[in-house]
Design goal:
CATH class of the largest domain: Alpha Beta
Strand content: 15-25%
Helix content: 25-40%
CATH topology of the largest domain: TIM Barrel
Bound molecules: N-(aminocarbonyl)-beta-alanine, zinc ion
Number of helices: 13
Length: 467
Amino acid sequence: MDLLIKNGTIVTAKEMYQADVAVDKGKIFRIQQNMDPAGFDEVVDAEGKLVLPGAIDGHTHLFLEFGGTISSDDYYTGTRSAACGGTTTVFDFVNQAHAENMLDAIKRRDAIASKDCAIDYSFHLAVSDVITEGMIESMQECVDYGIPSFKVFMVYDYGVDDGSFYKVLLKAREIGAIVGVHAENKYVNNVLIEKYLSEGKTDAWWHYMAKNEMVEGEADVRAVNLAKMAGAPLYIAHLADEMGMKAVTEARNEGYPIFAETCPQYLHFTSEVYKRERGRDFVCSPPMKNQASQDAIWGGVKNGNITVVATDHCPFSKAEKDWGITKKDGTPGNFTTIPNGCAGIENMYPYMLSEANQGRISFSRVVELCSTNPSKLFGLDDQKGAIRVGLDADIVIYDPEKDFTVTNSAMHGATDHTIWEGLHLKGYPVATYSRGNLVFKDGEFLGGRGQGRLVRCHKLSFNGPLL
Ligand code: URP
Ligand code: ZN
């Protein structure tokens, strides 16, 4: 047998207990106390450490074309960085081109990802065209292929109107899929952009003001209502505002299968960051919101109405962020010419676990939010998302005593700066295994390009109790 992790404390979404974990051929083979180490190729002593399922990052944008450039991390550097933060699976977005069969879009993207990913990966398909003949039908082909998760944008030029959103929801309900949404009111956002620019208001603060609490909240409420009308499950990506949190909570109390994801950046920063000298480095969509919103989403993290924490990792270089001052062509920039997105793929589990280590939530709740719930919601709970016999040996060993300060130079991605610079964390991952292979140990990446596999997910059903 390949590996025995001895004397650690296993953390599941429900409990923590002392046991050894045996791994063979990439799978968790046995969980038992005081296992005999004889016959194992390798024995690791995890005394005083936590043994966790690898995090599943349900929201990344690797190698994304956006704002006149491409996000800094490709599938290799992004997944390398993820592994070093205890993440063993990422869900990246495939953006459907106009009149492109959705399964063809997935295969187009997988041809790039499969060569590069260092850990396992899967996709959500971001729908942009359901009007052209055959497009909506191609959602079924994706589900059959193992991709039962779709997304619509309510904002950006490629965002869909409410009719198309509703059609996607209806289809998802019919075929056993889930629809995620980037909810911001594009029309109000555009009006506010025009107004602020005409008034000479160009810095990063106005990015936040043009995408303020109500710009997101109204779209959250509308998305929830559309899902209710369609009788379909809904996943609100990167929820960052109080009004949206209320709408999700009410819908869930009524029994609707509505799920919300938030991200560490919304739990840690508020809109005050946009007043900083380099506020443009924090420009992402949706932007960080006010304190009341942060309090509301922390409430959801604690009371169960936030179902998933993911990163929305989408970094751009400092020079690209500076396009908010001077554009690529040398003309004056403004908040609309800053590429949207920030780094975070290596920071999610360390940040959330550090919060748990300081008593804000339990370690089990972090496992639930960052691993077990995304595995259930996106249909890979029969493969990943828990320390359980028969599942992939995607395992993180976490040292609750190890202090760590985030610096960009200690990260393993391709980005030249991080919004998390200087953050002190209590506890840190010391080892990550991807299907039983050691890919990270004591600060060093040990995996390799192309070692990740595409995870095919099962069809979804939301008839049981809400996650
Ligand atoms: O700021 C973000 N989130 N950038 C990525 C594109 C998007 O909005 O999802
Ligand atoms: Zn995103």
